[in-house]
User: Fold these one by one.
Assistant:
Number 1:
Amino acid sequence: MDGAGIAAGKRNYGIDLLRIICMIMIIILHIFGQMFGKLEFSSLGYAGAWLAETTAYCAVNCFALISGYVGCEAKFKYANLLYLCIQVFFYTMSITLIFLILKPDAVSLKTIIKAVFPFAYDAYWYFTSYFCMYVFIPFLNRLLEQADKQVVFRLLITMFCAFSLLPTVFHYDMAKINGGYSTLWLIFMYLTGAYIKKYVSIRRRICLGGVLFLCIF
């Protein structure tokens, strides 16, 4: 769910590599997130785990950026959304059936309903948010086609201020972005990725240096 379903044309192996790195980062987030409670705050292990988690924290944002980068110029099909739903349905139902067989007391009617409709009951937050963002992609792409560069840039600055800067300053999530775990934030990332594809010339060394700087500080 990172744009692969809407990508078309010549394959970009740099994007494929970024997908792989982001997958590894997601694993790091889940593993090291469980380790903090078992490590001493002032220990070297805690510092290493903190640095690894901080470095990997951008993984979800990168997936959404990829969606915008490859999706803004690709042919959109709602059938791809159905395909994604079928994939998630297969895995949620498979896992639910395994638990139903091995540990039936752990599976309730509510659990089964969530497995059947994972996009509607937030069984997996990213899929739910991505599902909601996906239905807006044709309209987002039309906006990118018809609006000039300055209009899109001002829109992104406004969204950044409303979704990230102001909540950070006032310590209140006024736009209900939920720390980036929301449809609105994925839409912002999608538009940002599309803007980068259309208007920004990427210099690898500068990008790598910027990422390292932000991760450390």
Number 2:
Amino acid sequence: MGMPPSRVERPFASVRLRGRVVVLLGTVLSLAVIAAGCGSTSVGVRSDGSATSPTQRSSVEQPASTSSVPPAASSTTTSTLPSNADSSIHPLFLAPGVGIVADDPNIGCSTVYWTADFVHWQDISPPNPVLTGLPAGVPVQCIYIWTSASFVSANDGWILGRDGGSTDTVLFHTLNGGKSWNKEPGGATGSNGGSEVIGFADLSFGWRQQFATGANGPDSLELTTNGGTTWSAAPSIATHGGDQNLPVVFANPTVAFAAKPLTYVYAMFPDDNPAPWIWRTTDGGNHWSHFTVPAPPTLAGATAFYGQPRFFGQAGVLPVAFTNRSATWVAFYRSSDSGITWQLQALLRTHSDLLALPDVGSTAPTHLAGAFPVVAVAAPSTFWVIGTSTTGARTVSVTNDGGATWKSDIAAGIPTYKPSVQGYASQEGSVSLLQAASPDRAWIQVIEGSSIDSQSAVLLSTQDGGRTWTPLQPSP
């Protein structure tokens, strides 16, 4: 489960400290060898961070593996996503063998689409009541707007929707890839500006978390042990030692973590997230506390910033960024016991710059240490890292063997990041979401627009390991 969804993801805000506004200038991946231009290399990284000899990337890519996720049942409705300036595509869920997005028109009915290959899409929308009493000539509009999803296989999953203009949510469950749906008890967003997100560890155990944005009331966390048929309130995170503003990920009913993913851009100061620890509970939420892992020996003394773990059964992967002056490393820790113990599995070095902007009117920025790459975990041994150079170009590095080797490419098709020197943090070109399904397939949300008032998020996808990215909005 990722961050609370919104129409425009805000990956970072300006940070004013000692009269300066701090904003990311960029992170550029620097492996032992990065081929010039759009060339590519494969570079091994030892556990101490040193690189092995580079090898050229093979021209034959391995197909994405879907063996761990059974194919979805065939649907009677098959279509391509509409290309419509009056609608927008929002990601709901991505995992090996399945991708779920919602098409939200400005006027009309929110539609859910399913894919296994990013090419062929099926309309699997749950039942959506149509508004009645509309004036003559007004296009048909539906009540539900789909905002979150969680699938434990290509066939078995849940879709959460907002119930019109109320704070209520609706929940639907499918066991056959969206061919039919069962309605289950919904929850609430807690406020008009709030949201609710869901996650499931298996067919029985799941959770949903409320973020009551703008409200004084507490956020809430609910659990189910029977596939969503009934829900019960979990212990309050805020009153049991944790931070209720962070999204929660459960490994099982007793072990859970709360943290932001290493997807957003943060200045390197104590009040910013991600933090130099991760929140963990091992007793179902009755107690939350800070949890850390040992730094790699070569990075003793470096500042650590923790991302959000991802679990695949009992196997878990936790990404941690370590900064030491102008250098940034991404470490991946592996757990085989549902997050109780962790061991370092992979380490990838990046180079980064943080641009500290002075007060408005000055044109003399200075450079400070610390910036964060964008990270995703697709499988226990498949990791993605995206960096941004000082020119705004992106470099994508992917491993499919737990970090023994990495494939690196200069990405084509991602909008250039444009830092601001106007006293606030420009978001143009910033990546607000990265999710990956395999060594080849991933999608990102990138902010477009030159001003905060005009910015919106565009969804891009890749099927070649990050070399090329195109809008995930195929033409009919």
Number 3:
Amino acid sequence: MKIGIVLPLSLLMLGAMASSSALELPSQKPGLWKITMTNGKTPGGPRSFTMCQDVASIAASRASADAHIKNDCTAKSSLRKDGDNWIADAECTFSGMHVTSHSVTTVHGDDSFHTQVNSTMNGKTDVMTMDNVRIGACKPGQKVGVPLVGP
């Protein structure tokens, strides 16, 4: 699966659903973020990459997510906050595939969050976790929004 497709699905869902509710999402600090995704079905174990994000790219991601959720998901999609947890449930169709998902994102300030996504697609269930941690300032010359795989 391409990195661009799996970029924090939880944030996409949260951003889009929050825009249609009275909930205000937690802020995300600009800078260099390390994203580690774990899925029991992925050969070789967890996948990690870093990405430089600025205020504009964070806002653009939320706007893009909002458009995708509005176009691809049903009215059954929901978002609620319980303490530091954001719980999202969605039924969406992407490229002709129906996906039902339940995610719990635990927010740790504006520089760290953990997400577990349980999804069902074409009758197959999957569990993926994502850990997102801000590791500092973007590297000189690093392009905003371009994922870098490796150290």
